[in-house]
């Protein structure tokens, strides 16, 4: 809500805005980490690690320092084998020794009849929490200049190889 | 365009905004990747790689997993030897096995009579496309609080060592 | 300030906005880099380095190419031993050969009675400058959708192991 001067002209827009999303989207993405034995199926790989780690096995101390690059399929439902509607591309870095936590920088890249363009994300992912919020920091194409918040949740995982994330994307700036 | 209530006061700004840039800028930047033989001229270097790669030669599978840090000169024209007007500083990560694609996080840093301050970028760069859009996620100094979209195109390249990028920056939020 | 049409309705918001912060915050954070001998106290570690470097000692050429992951305590004053009010989590990459400069991507993560939520940052940090500005690119929780500028300054350092940063956060978009 903007402040409006007595002359009827808005003076600035420091005030509260409406917290109702202008667009809501839900997707799943599927991360299969390379572990030395799954090069065919892997969608991600460790590319940086601390001095005490390596790039094939996630490091001790809750993987602190492991940097993982990913190109994960995005699906509309929680089935890894559903048709991919886009790709989740970017990286995460495990960044805490005492518990699993990561910092994420990535994009959802779409090139389908449904969506063309990208949504860019960044933020902290305390991944042991049932849900956690990261920022939508921008977008292109159908998502030109968008901003918002994405709520991530771990929908499923198998050992330390397969992770399925659900992303509830709520956009609050739509152009 | 904002919704305006019958009282004449704007109620919120969920609606479409003007898509005309408040500022347009065009720059070139020049990336010379360290390959073991060009330490004097190199402006970037591989600092992370997958288990099957190393930090001197870009990895197979379309360089998937290679993390490159750069400090590239920015020029006003497409000549590497023109006076630099700033530096492009940050990183990219090749993030797809089947084709060249990268994720970028970087800044244009200016400290000249023309421009002082920085423009910050993030996004997916499907670099085989003639043009690709990334997000301007913020700025400082002359570019305080800016947002927008930058269209990148590969203006030239030589082998896997020299890449010249053109950046058409369109800012849609200027303070 | 928005342009207002003769009809009294705002036409768009391309024009200058008020540069007065809607929120001001000051914090300190404390980075203790792992150096092979301080695994108990270290809050950060080198996880990527150029071909000529390693992950225990910061590389020559002003650490160019070193990627550091951190999970640093945030305090209200400049005392490392004060109670932490949150964690600064993310990474920095030294990205220039001739002088110390880094690119930062990180979050302040709060979970106290005072603040719940996160503030996300990105930008270039020419760390030899007394002060340098980076972008607040988004936020969650108490900092939902925020944007702004953070001014960093090096409050103290000891050798190449301990760095204390002061962050003056000025938010210009508050929801």
From TrEMBL, chains A, B, C:
Task of the protein: Dirigent proteins impart stereoselectivity on the phenoxy radical-coupling reaction, yielding optically active lignans from two molecules of coniferyl alcohol in the biosynthesis of lignans, flavonolignans, and alkaloids and thus plays a central role in plant secondary metabolism.
Taxonomic path: Eukaryota, Viridiplantae, Streptophyta, Embryophyta, Tracheophyta
Location of the protein in the cell: Secreted, Extracellular space, Apoplast
Assembly with partners or alone: Homodimer.
GO term, biological process aspect, one: phenylpropanoid biosynthetic process
Main location: secreted
UniProt keyword annotations, A-Z: Apoplast, Secreted
Top-rank lineage group of the source organism: Eukaryota
Identification of the protein by name: Dirigent protein
Keyword field contains Secreted: yes
GO cellular component, one term: apoplast
Pfam families (UniProt xref): Dirigent
UniProt keyword annotation of NAD present: no
UniProt family annotation: Belongs to the plant dirigent protein family.
């Amino acid at each position: 809500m903007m402040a409006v001067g007595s002359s009827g002209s808005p003076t600035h827009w420091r005030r509260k805005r409406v917290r109702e999303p202008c667009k809501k989207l839900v997707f799943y993405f599927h991360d299969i980490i390379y572990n030395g034995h799954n090069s065919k199926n892997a969608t991600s790989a460790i590319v940086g690690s601390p001095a005490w780690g390596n790039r094939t096995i996630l490091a001790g101390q809750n993987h602190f320092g492991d940097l993982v690059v990913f190109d994960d399929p995005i699906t509309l439902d929680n089935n890894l084998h559903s048709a991919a509607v886009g790709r989740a591309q970017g990286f995460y870095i495990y960044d805490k020794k005492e518990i699993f936590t990561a910092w994420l920088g990535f994009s959802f890249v779409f090139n389908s009849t449904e969506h063309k363009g990208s949504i860019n994300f960044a933020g902290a992912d305390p991944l042991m929490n049932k849900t956690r919020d990261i920022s939508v920091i921008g977008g292109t194409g159908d998502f030109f200049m968008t901003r918002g918040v994405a709520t991530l949740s771990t929908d499923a995982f198998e050992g330390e190889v397969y992770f399925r994330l659900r992303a509830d994307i709520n956009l609050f700036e739509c152009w």
